[in-house]
Amino acid sequence: MSDTHLEIERTYDLPDGGDLPDLIGAGGVMQVEHEDPFELDATYWDTERYDLVAAHVTVRRRTGGHDAGWHIKRAASDTVRHEQHFPLTDDADAVPDELLAALSTERRGRDLQPVVRITTTRTVTRLLDEDGDQVGELADDHVSAQRLDADAPADPTTWREIEVEAVADVDEQVADALFTALDGRFAAVGAGPAAVASKLARGLAGAPAPRLQTAEKPAKGTAARALHKRLRKLRSTLLGQEALLRSGGAADLRETAETALGIAAVLGSYRPAFPAGDELDRAAAAADALAVVTARAALTEYLIARLPRASTPAQDALVDAATRERIAGASREQRDDAVAAVVAFLGEPDFTALLDALDDAVERPAPTDWALRDPKRVAQDVSAIEKPRVRDLVRAAVGDDPADEAGDRAATERAWDATLRTRMAMDVLRDDAFPHALWKRIGTAADVLTERVRSLHALEQLRAAAALAAEDGEETFGYGVLAGDRVRLAEESYDEAVHALTRI
After folding, report:
1. Partner of 412 for a Cys bridge, out of 166, 208, 344, 397, CB 3.0 to 4.6 A?
2. Whole-model pTM?
3. Strand intervals (E) in 183-261
4. For residue 53, with 0-12 CB atoms within 10 Å meaning exposed, 13-18 middle and 19 or more buried, which class applies?
C-alpha cells in the first residue's frame, strides 16, 4: 500500500561552516525548534538509459528519518513535487512490484538498477507560527554522493545544502510567500537557491547516460525548428494520455487519436528531416499502428454519444428508450474492447521504440540539411508528394461505387486517413509555407470524410444490432429509423466529398 502527498520545497546552497540566517519574522515564522542530527541513507534507482531522471521522476530506497521506505517523486515544477511513499522492504536489492507498476509509463518496460548512493547527515529545524503551529521544516544537510556506474569516480562528491519544505496540505500561495521571504534571509548570509535542482542530479553529474545528454534546438526560421516544436508538444500529450490509459483513468480518446496521427504525420511526411536508419523507420511504423488502433477507439467513443440518436427531433422521437439503451450498451462494449487494444499496444516493444525515437528527436535533435531549409522550400517538397497521393485516394473513395460496401468503407477510410495526416503535416508549417487554398481544401476534405466514415461505421453497427434484435424477437423499427438517418448522412457526406475533391 502506498500514500501520496504534495511536496512544496526549496533548496539553498550554503558553504560548509556558514551560518543559517535568522528566520524569525520570515513568512509568518515566529518560533523555531531545533532537533538532533540523524543519518539518512538512500539508494536511487533508474533504467540503464536513465529514463526516470529524463522524465523528472526520482525513485529511491531510503532508511533513517521518519519516512523511511521507497519513494517516487514526480516534479510538477522547480519547487513542487508529487511524492508517493511505499513501505520499506527487507530486500534492498529488489524493487517492489507495486512500485514498478506505478512506474510503467516512465520506465517503458525496462528494469531498474541502482545508479547512485547518497548519505546525508541532517539537522532539522521546525518552523512555527505565533500559535506554535508548524508552517515548514528546514533541513540542514551535509551530503555525500557516490555514483554506482562502471565509470564512477573513486571518491564521492560532497556538499552542503539547506532544504525548506512547507507543511503538508499548505496552500501553494502561502508556501510561495514563505519561500519569497526566506530568499531574502538566505541572500543576506551569502546563500541562494541551489544551482542544481536535486541531490540526485548533483550526485549523477558526469554519468555516461544517453537520456542525460541533450543537443541544441534547430535554428529559428527553419522547418526543423517547427518540426522540433511540434514533436515536443505531441510527445508531452502522448505521455500524459498514456499514463491515464495505463492507470484506467478517463483519457480523452479523441485527443489520443489525434496525437498519434499527428506523430505519424510528422514522421511520415517529413521523413527526410530525420537521420536515416532502421530505428526511426520502426518508430514511424509504430506511429502508424498506434494511429490506427487509437482511431478505432476514438470512433467507438463518438458512436456511444451519437449512435442512439437521430439527427432530427422528428426521427429521434420514433426511437424507443429500450432500443436506444441496447445500442448504447453494445457501443460501450465496443469502446471497452477498443481501449483494451490501445492499452495492449502501449505494452508492445514497438511502442517503446516509438517513445525512444521521440526522445531522441526532442532531446537530441539531429536535423538533416533538407530540414534546415526555409519552411516554404520544405513545404514545396511535401506538397509534391502528398497532394497527388491524397487526390488519388479521395477519387477512389468517391468514384464509382464498388461492388460491396466493405470495399466502399475501406476506400473511404484510406482517403480519410490520408487527408487527416496531410492536414496535420501541413499544420506543422501552417499556410505561411503551404498555399492557403490547398491547406484549407485538404482540411475541408478531411472534415467531410470524417463524417462519412462515422456514418458508414454507424450504419454497419446498427444493421448488426438490428439483426441480433430480430433473432431475439424484438422490435426493430427504431433500428431502421436510425439506419435510414445514417444512410442519408452518408449520402450527403459523399456529395460533399465529391465537391471537395474538385478543389484539391
Report:
1. 397
2. 0.81
3. 192-193
4. buried
